[in-house]
Amino acid sequence: MLVVDDHPLLREAIAARLAQMGAGTVHEAATVAEARARATATGPCDLAILDLGLPDGSGIELVTELRSHGWPRVVVLASSDDPYAVRSAFQAGAQAYLLKSASPVVVTDGVRRVLEGGVYADPSVAPVLATGTRVAGTDNTPRELSAREVEVLQLVADGQSNKEIGEELSLSALTVKSHLSRIGRKLGTGDRAQMVALAMRAGVIR
Q: Where is the HTH luxR-type domain (predicted)?
């Protein structure tokens, strides 16, 4: 795992918590440049946790870079609940947005949800995600999803595979895949994490 934050004590505390959760190796970086160097040296790790307010560059851009280089899970741990930052983080590919002011339990829950394949937003930023239903680049909105599509998306957010979703809803895996294709067309993205993030932002799923 990789932890990127310019505050040494916070960085060490997060690394220690990840170790308690069973992380094998936790790499640390204090800047965007250090994070890039670590990412290049290690290749994609299981999880990256990073601050947005780094001293030498944009944390949002770093999220985009890590995701484009094959990092499967990125969690943002930020001091700001600014709506623009929250939405930008999810749109860049982050699977969770946590606040530094959150309790250790909330942080642990968020990280665990992401490791299980889900998406998580700090409870205090949920109202931010629920405002503004229009999806960038398309006239469709998550509120146009059918009840069944919302059910499918909720189970995706809970970290379930297509097969598990099919068993839960008494559907074939192929039907689940068809639902996800339609959802993707409506939301303007084929990425599961981004579908969930957009629907969460609109308050359609929790």
A: 138-203
CA distance 5 to 26: 13
> Does residue 61 contact residue 53 with C-beta atoms inside 8 Å?
no
Q: What is the mean pLDDT of residues 11-40?
A: 94
Tokens of 42: 């290690």
Report whether 81 contacts 102 (CB < 8 A). Answer: no
119 contacts: CB under 8 Å, gap ≥ 6? 90, 95, 96, 113, 157, 193, 196, 197, 200
* Alpha carbon distance 22, 156 (integer Å): 24
Determine the 3-state secondary structure of 28 from DSSP.
strand
Phi, psi of 105 (to 5 degrees): -65, -45
* Contact criterion met (CB below 8 Å) for 94 and 75: yes
Is the pTM of the predicted complex or chain greater than 0.90? no
Greatest Cα-to-Cα distance within the chain, rounded to the nearest angstrom: 50
List pLDDT tens digits, range 132-179. 433 433 444 444 677 788 889 889 988 889 999 999 999 998 999 999
Per residue, what are the HEC states of 153-199?
Answer: HHHHHCCCCHHHHHHHHCCCHHHHHHHHHHHHHHHCCCCHHHHHHHH
Structure tokens that stand for 29 in this block: 């970086």
